[in-house]
Amino acid sequence: MPRKAFVADLTDAVTTFTRYNVSNLRAGEEDGMLNFAYHIDGGGATEVTILVPDLGEYPGSHMYMIYTNSENVPPKVHSALEAMSNCHGLKVPDMLLKVVKSLDKSTSGSQNNPVDLDDPEPMELDSDPELEQSDDQEDDDSDAGGWSPKSPKHHSSATSTYHRGKRPEVKAVNARLRRDLRMAKDAGFRVGYHGSLLNGGRDGFVTISCRIAKLGISDEALQAWHLEPSQYFILLIRYVEGYMSLDRLLGSGFSHDSQVQIRSGVSHTYKVSLDEAIASFTTLEDKSKSSRLVAQRKSDETRVSGLGRLFIGRPLDDLLNERLIPLLRYRIAMSFSWGGAEEFFNDHQGRNLTGADEMDSKYWAEDDLQRQISLPSIVTRDHLADKRKECSLPLLAMQFALRHLVRCTEFCLVCHCKVEADFEALKPYVCSKPLCLYQYMSLGFGPSIEHEIITQPHVVDLLISFCYTSARHYKLRYLPTGMALMVPAPSILAGSHNIALQQNGSTGMPYPTHYPPPPPPPSKAPITPERTPALKTFKAKFDSQRMELIFGTGTTKVLNPGNWITFPVPQSVRQRYHCRVAGVLHPTVILGKPFVRGPKQDPKVDPRVTVSISQHRSFGTNPQNASPALTPAATPPPLTPKDATPKELPEIEFSIYDQNFDDLEDPEKHTAIHFLLDTLPSVQSMSDYLQSKGGQEMSLRSWTDRISPAALGLLRWIIASDRSCIIQVDSLDGNTRKSEERVSGLPGWMQFRFAQGAPDKEQRFVTSIKHATNPNYPTMFAWHGSPLWNWHGIVREGLHFEKAAHGRAFGDGVYHSLQFQTSMSYSGYIGSRGYGYGSGDGSHRSLEWAQSQLNISQAIALNEIVNAPSQFVSSSPHLVVAQLDWIQSRYLFVKCNTSGISLGDSTPGQAYEQDKSYTPIGESGKPIVIPITAVSKCRRKTAKVGDKRKAENVQEQGEAAMVSDDTDDEDLAILCSDDEEPDVLPTMTDNGKGKTAVEPQHTKPDASKTDFIPGTLDQKTLPLLEPPSYATSSATKALQRELTATLKVQDMVPADQLGWYIDGELVNNVYQWIVELHSFESHLPLAKDMRSRGVKSVVIEIRFGKDYPMSPPFVRVIRPRFLGFQAGGGGHVTAGGALCMELLTNSGWSAASNIESVLLQVRLAMSSTDPRPARLEPGPIKDYQVGEAIQAFIRACNAHGWQVPEDIKSTYSGLSGSSSRY
Prior knowledge:
Blueprint: H1 2-16, E1 22-27, E2 33-40, E3 44-51, E4 65-68, H2 75-82, H3 92-106, H4 129-134, H5 153-186, E5 190-195, E6 204-211, H6 219-225, E7 232-239, H7 246-250, E8 260-267, H8 274-280, H9 313-334, H10 338-348, H11 369-374, H12 377-380, H13 393-406, H14 434-442, H15 449-455, H16 457-472, E9 486-487, H17 490-493, E10 538-543, E11 548-550, E12 564-568, E13 576-585, E14 588-591, E15 595-596, E16 651-656, E17 659-660, H18 666-679, H19 683-692, H20 709-720, E18 725-728, E19 749-755, H21 761-768, E20 779-785, H22 791-797, E21 814-816, H23 820-827, E22 856-866, E23 879-881, E24 887-896, H24 948-961, H25 969-973, E25 987-990, E26 995-998, H26 1033-1052, H27 1055-1058, E27 1060-1062, E28 1072-1077, H28 1085-1093, E29 1098-1103, E30 1114-1119, H29 1155-1167, H30 1186-1200, H31 1206-1211
Antiparallel strand pairs: 1-2, 2-3, 3-4, 5-6, 6-7, 7-8, 9-17, 10-11, 10-16, 11-14, 12-13, 12-16, 13-14, 13-15, 18-19, 19-24, 20-22, 21-23, 22-24, 25-26, 27-28, 28-29, 29-30
Helix pairs in contact: 5-26, 9-10, 15-16, 16-18, 18-20
GO molecular function: NAD+ poly-ADP-ribosyltransferase activity; nucleotidyltransferase activity
Protein name: UBC core domain-containing protein
InterPro entries: ARTD_PARP (IPR051838), Poly(ADP-ribose)pol_cat_dom (IPR012317), UBC (IPR000608), UBQ-conjugating_enzyme/RWD (IPR016135)
């Protein structure tokens, strides 16, 4: 790890680095910082501070910031520190040696600091190119006020040196960039380009994309992964320090955020715009993954471009940025395949490549040939296996990304190891390591449960119900261990701690007496009363009026905010309240709103339970989080008389959720699961809560007073561990019913589309159809029934026959039947028949999830099977199929016990023609009609089409969606040969004093793409800050380099793509820049306001302090005035015109930032529509004044807790008066 390497090197240096004039070498106050005292004769000690701005780049591509905060620093030491290079890439001991030698050289006139004449590297300090530029004899920075872009200094240090000495290198980089992109294009991918990578530019983007339709992903996987065939899968690669080829990267200290950064996503265009590319690598504020929640996907008519997030976007991005380069190193050095390199990496975790002769031969094994055959060549092709002298990094990155996208179910989403599972899955998940499961759930790698709850509430209800029934019957094969779930003590989980545990080797789990308990699996060690952990209880007075617990004087504090507790409902025998600790002011504890587990109202509960939300006093929480009428499980407590004294308050005995789920025995874990599920509100209540939040953060984590962390973690596990694709066909409210996908002949049953198996399972099924004995009807459909408690395992693991639940009288295989009633006999019924408990009077409902809207009693699947009964294990009386690739699940039907709701029947417009000898019979004894949509699109030509014209229209719509978008001119130009390349670099002229560079002329912006006209701004009309009177050598040199580089980018990037403009004629002082932001996206309200008001640009002023780049610049808008936050405006512009961005404060600033990236992020902030879009102030166009900008910026910093830069505090203290506006 980078931080560990830095700490190790620093520790070594503290121990071994010895110089007579250096003392007190130690670690600094912050990560990446170190300090030491440097002594010279007669000058005392100077405290030197050295900082690594980005420890993630250590050791390799990092740099150091070297400075001092000491007072009365000797001039020679001060000058040496100012002129010091950044010691790029050196480890701590080597850097220290170089810094001290530099100081010794500068102070060599002192008696105690002689020049070391025996130093083998006496000129080492002058080898740094940046230092050579800074030491130019004309580079006198004492008078910054007279500097201008036209002065000789503008070219002497950077521009002319670069172009005179590096022109061949620039041509070589251009040629390599083109070759790499051509190789990607020749491999079948589309390429795109943004920025200034050509001609020595340092920041730009390359996109590699491919249609989803070309990847061979089945329709079922596309649905499960929320992808569309017409979309492009895009790999966006950002080069931060200029284009770097693969061989250069392999020889550098690559880290995921240094020279190359990678993002993946989807889009309806083959490339994203420049603003969208920048936004993909920029985070203006913390956005939870639930903020991506949408109620419905946009229709084709309302498509928008942009890099949409992929369902495995975060794990895939982490994999590409952290492992791609190390894996390529292994592959090249060892001739591994992708699989071998990944296995070697996981086994060795980045160790040195030694002992190759002793390594396991498994690393050279070929990848699964079956996978190679079932996937298209664009997914399986390996560019590195072509044995070329030069390989394209963009192409290799795309091939590696596709490997993990298309085959995502084969890899753990956290550690990226191969998942060793005994079943196939349609959705990706994690491996069996507990740490991976914990990170998957806690770090947000899993699916958005909020999205599923809003878009598919019945599916979530179905999954919870399946898990609940399995837990009640002790049938869960996998349990949510490793998630740090904290639950009540086992005796409370069982119902009530005063209910005696069963004796004589029983499980210790009590059951109500009105139905017999299902037998639990045997535990490794039977739980007896002696082994059951003692229940910890605590006593306190309970004030239900104020929702407070009051402890006695001198009692020990046992509760902390966020704890969950449970205590008996007063005057109730079995019911208990559950609530969250909202605040602790010991001896008083403030509670959240309590609720009762389970739906049944105990008749012994006090009927005076009428506490309303308005009567509930909250502590440190948003009152809006209080839920309206939730579920029957939200019964408030009895009222305490208002005038009750503490002595008159009733005393309760409570216990804490302090039992780790992992420490329970398996039977107790099953009980804990259905206990926690009973505390959840209904899915409809959760959906209503999420949608009521509107534009706020939509996450169930915020419903702190209603859902415990353990219950929420369990809910996430249930949804995330579903490896099938289940899509609602019916809805109880009738809003999302899809009649064309509904099977006819089964009224009263709720229907779901149901798919299982690996992403290539459909392709293997299609391949297996060649075994069909009837080519006219290659497949048949048949029923598969199973008890309700088995379905949680089926949706996780798929259909298999590893365990026999009902015997195997007709051989090993998956059992099917053409008769609905036959399969139903294996499904049973929770009620008056089958395996049900009770007498049909509703007592069976104790085994159902109490909050379920569906109230499921039975479930049955309809599967498609290869029509080859002669090759089945048995074809009579049941269809027993042993070949799992011959079976594809298509539908799931559930019987819902809902009153007043009828699920009618409907006939699909297009039906799949079935073999009359093998037609499934429905519940009524008549053949069912299966819609054509039940089979994959590639096989629908075998269907009997009732409406030919309708089918043609569907085909035309599909073809229209796949029409390729045009390639941009700049993307065509970058593929041109070097001979066709226009020479846009500055040319050299002889002015009699030697050759100097002539600035390239600004190209006229394309009027069709922007209405901005450069060079028309009149600076005399602008209210500017007073010109700075300060200047430091280090800041001046840094700003000279920044301005030179920024103007160079401006010269080479089209104005409409760049979006900002700096007029060099207006930069009279490097500490004060005037920038115009223009060409905003036309759909933004800001762009519309500017267009209607005749405003061509937003004029901003950037003021740099004397401590730059250690201190951020001050950025403010001059004109036009924006609509303030209080008036409904946005865009991160304060009422005084200052930019409200943490990036521009000491809290968020990085000394490694460059001004080009600052301008891009400022422009992006103005374009942001969250929480509201930027708008112009109504009325005449006016300017912001200087004083109000300073005041507004300081107020914004104070409001957000950001640290105001010292430069602003000291320089503009007289302008920072108080004001009520923000």
